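User: Hi! I'm working on a homework problem where we have to compare a predicted structure to a textbook description. Could you give me the structure for the chain below?
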Amino acid sequence: SYLAVDLDGQNGKELLVFQQSSSGESGNRVEYYRYQDGTMTMTSSAPLSDNLIDVQSAKLGRLADESRAIYVTSTTETGVLTDIVVLEGGRNLVALDMIVQRIAGHIAEN
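Assistant: Happy to help. Predicted structure tokens:
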């Protein structure tokens, strides 16, 4: 599935494509495509949760700090879960749990 959305806030449309691994166990990801020099190009990707059966919906929303985020709701064998994906630095697609892991690692180092 896919979603056409203005994730970077620059009044254009980018494309998010949701890829599921054939096994569904790992390797699920969302790819971020945007126009570069007149060509739609994949510029970044981020992992989605493991064990997905199907992406039910993907919607643009906001985080508490008002930054844009994509809420990806998927079915799994045990129920429904939502991955949250943000565009970090205006270029890199990052799953929110990866940011939390980086912060936790930084705190543990200090």
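For your comparison, note the following. Residues 75 and 94 are 21 Å apart (CA to CA). The chain has one helix and eight strands. Good luck with the assignment!
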